[in-house]
From TrEMBL, chain A:
WD repeats lie at residues 67-108, 157-198, 199-242, 243-284, 294-328, 329-361. SUPFAM superfamilies: WD40 repeat-like. Keywords: Repeat, Transducer, WD repeat. Gene3D superfamilies: YVTN repeat-like/Quinoprotein amine dehydrogenase. It comes from Kryptolebias marmoratus. Belongs to the WD repeat G protein beta family. One of its GO terms (biological process) is swimming behavior. Coiled coil: none annotated. The keyword Acetylation does not apply. Pfam families: WD40_Gbeta. This is Guanine nucleotide binding protein (G protein), beta 5a. The lineage of its organism: Eukaryota, Metazoa, Chordata, Craniata, Vertebrata. May interact with RGS9; this interaction stabilizes both proteins and increases RGS9 GTPase-activating protein (GAP) activity, hence accelerating the deactivation of D(2) dopamine receptor-mediated signaling.
Automatic annotation (TrEMBL), chain B:
Residues 32-107 form the DEP domain. Residues 422-451 are annotated as: Disordered. SUPFAM superfamilies: Regulator of G-protein signaling, RGS (SSF48097), Transducin (heterotrimeric G protein), gamma chain (SSF48670), Winged helix' DNA-binding domain (SSF46785). Residues 289-404 form the RGS domain. It holds the Pfam family RGS_DHEX. It comes from the Eukaryota. One of its GO terms (cellular component) is neuron projection. The keyword Protein biosynthesis does not apply. This is Regulator of G protein signaling 11. GO terms for molecular function: GTPase activator activity. Residues 427-438 have a biased composition (Low complexity). Keywords: Signal transduction inhibitor. GO terms for biological process: G protein-coupled receptor signaling pathway; intracellular signal transduction; negative regulation of signal transduction; regulation of G protein-coupled receptor signaling pathway.
Length: 361, 451
C-alpha cells in the first residue's frame, strides 16, 4: 500500500494554472464552509450538559516513586501492559526500561544519536521501539541475559527524512506507527521494515499521535506544528477529519477512553477536547494564570479527569465534563515533557527535563 | 515547540506567546489603579523608588487570579525566572521570596521579547564595562566567556572597549539612585539572557503544493460527513464517566488498595489475566460493551465457553483468526488466509461461518490475492453478529450470572500496624521472558504477565 494519489488533473494547462495562491484560497474557502457546517448542529455546551453531574471533591495526589538514572532531559516514556514497567528515553541518547514499582532499572540501551524523542513499549512486553534525531525508529528486543548487548539485536524499522517525534505499536508487536518532523506519519511492518502506508496532510512537523481504541481499530489522530489535529484512516491513508482551533503547535493528542473524542495539548497553554461524532471542538481547558505550554496530556480511566504536563514544571488536573481545574501538582524542577496514565489507571507517570521520572497516585 | 526551536535556541511562536502573556501580567501588576502599591525600598544606603516586596507580588497574584499561595509563588517565580521582575538584594537568587525582600519590575527596554536576540556584541560590551569598572568583578563563568568572546570577535574588540568606556562615562553623569537602578536592570537582563550556545540547524522542505492538494481533498471529504448534534454526543461523555467512575482507581480508589500507595501488589494479583475467581468490578465491566468483554482475555474465554454451549463458537474463532492476520507478521499472511479459508469459508468447512452472500462473494474473490485487510468485511460482519445476538444473550445467561455472583469484592487493606514501616516492594517476572504460545481454540492464554 502506498500513499493516496494526488487528485487527478484534467490537463497540463489546468496544472499550470493552479498557482499556489489559488490553492491556498481554495483551502481557506473550504475551511470556512466546514466551520459553518459544524456550527449548525452545535446546540449545547459540554459544561451545560454537565451541570447535573456532581462536582469533584478535594484532590490529593502525590509523587509515589521518583526514578533517577537519566543523565539528561527525559523526553518520552511509555507503560508496559503489565501496569508496572515503563520505558523512558532521554536527550543523552539513553533508553531505560524500569520496573517503576521497585524503581529498579532492568535494561538500558545507548542509542547512536542524542535527543531520543520517542519511545514505546511493545504490547507483548518483549521489545521497545525508539528514535529521534537519527530520523529512524528502531526496535530492540528485550533480553533477560544480562550479558547480552541489546544494541546488537537492534532492528531498524522506520526511515523518515527528519526527526522522529513519536512512535506507537499498533495492537501487536508487528506494526509501528510513527510521526516525524518531515510532516508525515507512517505505518511500518516491523518484520520487514516495509512502509505499509504513509499519511500526508500536515503542513509542518508532526509532533504527536495516538491510536484509537475503537471497535474496528482502524484510525489514529496526529497533532502538528501547523496547529492541526488530523484523524486518519489507517487502511486508505486518507485524512478523514481535521481540526484547527489551537493557536500554536499541538504537542500532544490522546483519545478519550471510549474513542468518541480526543484531547490535545498545545503551546498556546490550553488543552482542548474534540468530539468525533459532532465533528467539532467541544471544550477548552484554560486559565488566565496558566501561561506556559502543555507538553503532554492523558485521561484517567473513566475519562472524567484530564492530566496535563506543562512547560512551567507543573501538572494541572482538569474536570473534563465541567471544564474546571481540579488541582495543580508541583514537584518537578524543570519542564514536564511527557505524561502517561498507567494501563489500569492506578497512577500516572511524568518525565521531565529535570532528568527524573515520577509516578503519581 | 519542535527540536528546531530547541536546537537553534531561537525565539519562536511558543516562547513569544508565553512572553506576551507574562507581559500582560506585569503590565496589570503595574497598573496605577489595580496594580501593586509601590514604595521606596532601601538597598544598603540608597533608596530605590518604585519597588515592592515578594509578599506584595504573591498577595496580588492570589487576588487577581483566584489561586492558592503555592501557585502564586510558582507563577511569580516564573516572572522572576524570565526577567520581568528582578530582586534587589540578591540578584542571582531567582527564587521568589514570600517576605519583605525587595523586587522591581524590569524596564520594557530589557524585556526578553523586545531585545531578542541578545547579541554577542552587546554581551561583550556589558562584560567589558564590568571589567573596566572594577577589576575582579567578573564571575568565573563571565571571565571564561569574556576571553572566548575576545577570541571570537577579536576584529571588533576596539569597538567593544570604546563603547564600554563611553557607556560608563555617560552613567557617571546620572544620579546615584538612577545609576544603581540601571545597573540592576542590565545585570538582571544578562543573568537571564547569557549568550545562547550555537547549535546545528535542522531544515526540512515540504512541497507546499502537494500538501495543499491533500488538505483540500480532506476538506472536501469532511464536508460530506454526517454529523451528530452536540446534545446527543455530549450526553455520551456524562454517561461514560458515570458508568466507569467506580472503575477509575484515581477517582474512587481501588480495593484492596492502590499498589503505588500501599506498596501491596494484591490489587494486581487479583486482577491478573487468568484468576480462579475474578473481581466483581471486572465481571461487571463486561456488561458495559462488547469491546470491554473481548479485550479482557478472561472475558473472551468465558464468552467462548458460552458460545460452545450454543454451538456458535466458530464465530469467535473466526474473529480471532482475522485479528491475528490483521496484526501479525506480513510474511505469514498468505498462509494464514488460506487456513482461514479452509477452516471457516470453504463450502463444507468444518467451522463454517454464516456470512451474507454478498460479503462472502467479495471475500472469496479478494482472498485470491491475499493482503492484510482482505478479511475485514467478513470479520466485521461476524463481529456485529456476535455483538447484536450472542453478546446480549450471554449477559442474560446463567453462566454470566453465576460468575457475577461468585465474583469477589476485595476487602480494603487494613492500615499497617506500623505506619512508618514501608512494605517490601517485590519484583515481578519480566514479560520479556519467553512466553508459551497461546492457543486460539480454547481461548486459553498462558502468559507471564506480572503479578
Amino acid at each position: 500500500m502506498r500513499s493516496p494519489p494526488i487528485p487527478e488533473m484534467a490537463t497540463q494547462e489546468v496544472q499550470l494554472n493552479e498557482t499556489l495562491a489559488h490553492l491556498k484560497t481554495e483551502s481557506e474557502t473550504l475551511k470556512t464552509k466546514l466551520e459553518e457546517e459544524r456550527a449548525k448542529l452545535h446546540d449545547v455546551e459540554l459544561h451545560q450538559v454537565a451541570e447535573k453531574v456532581e462536582a469533584l471533591g478535594q484532590f490529593v495526589m502525590k509523587t509515589r516513586r521518583t526514578l533517577k538514572g537519566h543523565g539528561n532531559k527525559v523526553l518520552c516514556m511509555d507503560w508496559c501492559k503489565d501496569k508496572r514497567r515503563i520505558v523512558s528515553s532521554s536527550q543523552d541518547g539513553k533508553v531505560i526500561v524500569w520496573d517503576a514499582f521497585t524503581t529498579n532499572k532492568e535494561h538500558a540501551v545507548t542509542m547512536p544519536c542524542t535527543w531520543v524523542m520517542a519511545c514505546a513499549y511493545a504490547p507483548s512486553g518483549c521489545a521497545v521501539a525508539c528514535g529521534g534525531l537519527d530520523n529512524k525508529c528502531s526496535v530492540y528486543p528485550l533480553s533477560l541475559d544480562k550479558n547480552e548487548n541489546l544494541a546488537a539485536k537492534k532492528k531498524s524499522v522506520a526511515m523518515h527524512t527528519n526527526y522522529l517525534s513519536a512512535c506507537s505499536f499498533t495492537n501487536s508487536d508487528m506494526q509501528i506507527l510513527t510521526s516525524s518532523g518531515d510532516g508525515t506519519c507512517a505505518l511500518w511492518d516491523v518484520e520487514s521494515g516495509q512502509l505499509l502506508q504513509s499519511f500526508h496532510g500536515h503542513a509542518a512537523d508532526v509532533l504527536c499521535l495516538d491510536l484509537a481504541p475503537s471497535e474496528t481499530g482502524n484510525t489514529f489522530v496526529s497533532g502538528g506544528c501547523d496547529k492541526k489535529a488530523n484523524v486518519w484512516d489507517m487502511r486508505s491513508g486518507q485524512c478523514i477529519q481535521s481540526f484547527e482551533t489551537h493557536e500554536s503547535d499541538i504537542n500532544s493528542v490522546r483519545y478519550y477512553p471510549s474513542g468518541d473524542a480526543f484531547a490535545s495539548g498545545s503551546d498556546d497553554a490550553t488543552c482542548r477536547l474534540y468530539d468525533l461524532r459532532a465533528d467539532r471542538e467541544v471544550a477548552i481547558y484554560s486559565k488566565e494564570s496558566i501561561i506556559f505550554g502543555v507538553s503532554s496530556v492523558d485521561f484517567s480511566l473513566s475519562g472524567r479527569l484530564l492530566f496535563g504536563g506543562y512547560n512551567d514544571y507543573t501538572i494541572n488536573v482538569w474536570d473534563v465534563l465541567k471544564g474546571t481545574r481540579v488541582s495543580i501538582l508541583f514537584g518537578h524542577e524543570n519542564r514536564v515533557s511527557t505524561l502517561r496514565v498507567s494501563p489500569d489507571g492506578t497512577a500516572f507517570c511524568t518525565g521531565s527535563w529535570d532528568h527524573t521520572l515520577r509516578i503519581w497516585a | 515547540m519542535t527540536i528546531n526551536t530547541l536546537a537553534k535556541g531561537e525565539l519562536r511562536r511558543e516562547q513569544m506567546s508565553c512572553f506576551q502573556k507574562m507581559e500582560k501580567v506585569v503590565v496589570a501588576m503595574q497598573d496605577p489603579d489595580i496594580g501593586i502599591k509601590m514604595r521606596n525600598q532601601r538597598l544598603l544606603i540608597t533608596v530605590i523608588p518604585h519597588a515592592m516586596t515578594g509578599l506584595d507580588i504573591i498577595t496580588w497574584l492570589v487576588q487577581k487570579y483566584r489561586i492558592s499561595e503555592e501557585e502564586a509563588l510558582h507563577l511569580g517565580g516564573m516572572l522572576l525566572k524570565y526577567g520581568y521582575v528582578y530582586p534587589l538584594k540578591e540578584p542571582r537568587c531567582l527564587v521568589l521570596q514570600p517576605d519583605e525582600s525587595p523586587y522591581r519590575f524590569q524596564t520594557p527596554y530589557f524585556w526578553t521579547s523586545t531585545r531578542w536576540p541578545a547579541t554577542e556584541l552587546d554581551y561583550a560590551i556589558y562584560l567589558a564595562k564590568k571589567n573596566i569598572r572594577k577589576q575582579g568583578e567578573l564571575m568565573e563563568y563571565e571571565r571564561e566567556r569574556y576571553s572566548l568572546l575576545h577570541k571570537r570577535i577579536n576584529h571588533t574588540w576596539d569597538f567593544v572597549v570604546m563603547q564600554a568606556r563611553e557607556q560608563l562615562r555617560a552613567s557617571k553623569q546620572r544620579r546615584k539612585a538612577d545609576r544603581i537602578v540601571l545597573e540592576c536592570q542590565e545585570q538582571a537582563y544578562w543573568l537571564i539572557n547569557r549568550s545562547p550556545v550555537r547549535s546545528v540547524q535542522l531544515h526540512h522542505c515540504t512541497t507546499q503544493r502537494t500538501i495543499l492538494h491533500y488538505i483540500i481533498e480532506a476538506f472536501r471529504r469532511a464536508l460530506g460527513r454526517n454529523r451528530v448534534k452536540s446534545s446527543v454526543c455530549l450526553e455520551g461523555f456524562v454517561n461514560y464517566s458515570e458508568q466507569y467512575q467506580n472503575h477509575d482507581p484515581i477517582m474512587q480508589g481501588c480495593l484492596p488498595s492502590n499498589p503505588w500507595i500501599s506498596d501491596d501488589t494484591a490489587y494486581w494479583s487479583m486482577n491478573s489475566e487468568i484468576v480462579p475467581i475474578p473481581t466483581r468490578l471486572r465481571v461487571e465491566s463486561w456488561s458495559f460493551s462488547f469491546v470491554e468483554l473481548l479485550s479482557d482475555p478472561m472475558g473472551r474465554r468465558e464468552f467462548m465457553t458460552y458460545l460452545e454451549k450454543e454451538f456458535s463458537a466458530e464465530n469467535l474463532c473466526f474473529w480471532q483468526a482475522c485479528e491475528d492476520i490483521r496484526h501479525g507478521e506480513s510474511s505469514k499472511i498468505p498462509e494464514k488466509v488460506d487456513d482461514v479459508y479452509q477452516n471457516f469459508l470453504a463450502p463444507g468447512a468444518t467451522r463454517w461461518v454464516n456470512i451474507d452472500s454478498k460479503t462472502m462473494a467479495k471475500t472469496l474473490e479478494g482472498i485470491k490475492s491475499p493482503h492484510r485487510f482482505v478479511l475485514d468485511d467478513a470479520q466485521m460482519h461476524i463481529y456485529f453478529l456476535m455483538k447484536k445476538d450472542s453478546y446480549p444473550r450471554y449477559l442474560k445467561s446463567e453462566l454470566y450470572k453465576n460468575l457475577l455472583a461468585k465474583a469477589v469484592v476485595p476487602q480494603e487493606s487494613k492500615k499497617s500496624v506500623f505506619p512508618f514501616m514501608r512494605r517490601q516492594r517485590h519484583s515481578s517476572p519480566s514479560p520479556a521472558q519467553a512466553v508459551a504460545p497461546a492457543t486460539e481454540e480454547d481461548g486459553c492464554a498462558v502468559s507471564n504477565s506480572a503479578v
